Amino acid sequence: MASAGAAAVPPDRNRLNDTTEPPDSKGGSLSKLMVAVISAVSAIVVAFITSYFQYQTQIAPTKTELEKTQSQLGDTSQQLRQVQYNSAGTLQEGQKLCRVLQGRQWRDSVIVPKSWNVTLCHDYALRLGGTAYQLGCIREGGGIALGGENGTIPENNCGWN
Hints:
With 161 residues, the chain is α+β, with helices and mostly antiparallel strands.
C-alpha cells in the first residue's frame, strides 16, 4: 500500500518540490546569464562611480588651478600691453621725439613713450620754458623725420596724434 500511495502523487507535483535542476536545462542557463548580466552592469556602475570620485578629487582641483592660471595670464598680458604702450617702442616702428625750442638759443630733445600725444609734448615744452616745440620720429638706420616748429606732425608719422 505504501507503494500505491507513492504512485498516486502526480509527477509534476514532485517536481515542484524538487529545487535542483538538471545542469542542461534552459532554466539553469537563463539564471546563469542573468547573473552574468547583473555582474557586468555592477562592474560598469562601480567603474563609473570610481571615475567620478577620481574626477572630483584629482581633475576638478586641477581645472580650478588652470582657470586661476589663465586669469593670471590675462592680467599679465594686460600689464605687458600697458608697459609696451608706455615704452618708447622699437626703432623699426619708430620712436617719438619731442623737441623743446627756445628761439635760436637752445633746443632740448627727448625720446618719449608711445602713449605721448601732441598736447603732452606742448605742455612739456611750456614747463621747460620753451617758446615752441617740434614733433619728430626716429627710425632704424638713422632716419629722423621732424614736423614744423609750430608742432605739426612729421610726414613719416610714428604715432603722433
